[in-house]
Amino acid sequence: MTDADVDLARLLTAFLHAHRRLVAYAVTQLVIKESDAEPGGHPYLTDFQTGTVLFSSSGVATLDPDNDLSELRVEAGVRPDPTGFEVWVELVLFAGAESNSGWPEGRHLLHEERQRCADVSETVRTLTAYVDRLVNVEDPLASVAWTRR
Amino acid sequence: MSTAEIHQFLTALHRIHDRLDKAMDDIHAVSTAGEHAEMGPSVHLEETETGIRVGSRYVYRVADASPDPDGWDLSTRGDVCELNIAATVLIEPTGCAASVTVTAIMRDAALSPYPLGEHSLHDARQVHPDSAAAIDALAVMVEELESPVTFLERVHLVVTR
User: Fold this and answer.
1) Are A60 and A72 in contact (CB under 8 A)?
2) CA A86 to CA A122: how far, in whole Å?
């Protein structure tokens, strides 16, 4: 096992743990009481906008799946390049056309942190700290005045 | 130094992910609206007792279309077969294992010569000293994998149009 293998295993393990925490957060914190929210989440390997490689994970609560598909989403990502990694977390509201959330239709960034890291140790530390802060945000829905139709 | 190597590994894994995705187009070409219940690529990440496994996994579910001849009401149908294709690398202190597996899970014996339960249709494994060699080997193993349609044919679940 090379040093790179050790670092790769550390990075993948940190990412897997981050993914699990985001999904748990979506299940326990993003679900709005009495809504039709369907929480879940998936890890991804591709940036669908650019087609480039990255590791991203999301925990998602689809707020009203039968109607406007509004979503609350927590995301964490690690984008590698030959000289380092970009790390980020986001809490995003996607308001549907008929959303009763008080937000206009579209994507709204409610929380964001991002940083470029030079090595795996810094990447793992940053990712863990970002996810720690994200999942400890109290009342993440306070700014989303969602009411059931 | 390892940053560049990790980037190379993940880029190679990304190419394998895309290669499997394109291979699954073959299934689209032979599937009907009624039988194609669900298919999707996903990143496979799993901790084991001694390491971590990473790769791509595809699940294709063949559904019984008989309750709804038009095949659009998924809620009335039951899965009769699930085809799992996984291309992964297991990273462990003792080495890195590349594997490509294809598994069929039969849930309706009447539609296939295979009995109910899980059946291994393909299982290729290679152990290498490091992740770089393992991901290179995985790329070759995926390239040499038969079309997913041939696996459906083996369990007699391809609908001829």
Assistant:
1) yes
2) 11
Which pLDDT score is estimated for B140? Answer: 97
What tokens were used for A12?
């993948």
Q: Does B90 touch chain A (CB under 8 A)?
A: no
Contact B45 A83 (CB under 8 A): no
As a whole number of angstroms, the distance between CA B117 and CA A10 comes to 36
Residue A139 Rama label (left phi>0; alpha psi -120 to 50; beta): left
Query: What is this structure's pTM?
Result: 0.84
Q: What pLDDT was estimated at residue A69?
A: 66
The residue range of the domain holding B119 is: 2-154
In Å, how far is A139's CA from the nearest CA of chain B? 30
Task: Determine, yes or no, domain membership for B136.
Answer: yes
ipTM entry: 0.83
Structure tokens at B7: 């980037």
Q: Does B121 touch chain A (CB under 8 A)?
A: no
**Residues of chain B with confidence (pLDDT) below 70:** 1, 30-40, 63-79, 109-111, 156-161
Residue at B159 is within a domain: no
Number of domains forming the structure of chain B: 1
Domain annotation covers residue B161: no
Beta-carbon separation of B45 and A16 below 8 A? yes
Whether B95 maps to a domain, the answer reads yes
Q: Tokens standing for A76?
A: 């964490």
Q: Does B96 sit within 8 Å of A1, measured CB to CB?
A: yes
Residue A114, pLDDT above cutoff 90:
yes
Chain B residues with beta carbon closer than 8 angstroms to that of A82? 3-4, 7
Instruction: List the single residue in B with minimal CA-CA distance to A119.
Output: B3
CB B111 within 8 A of CB B81: yes
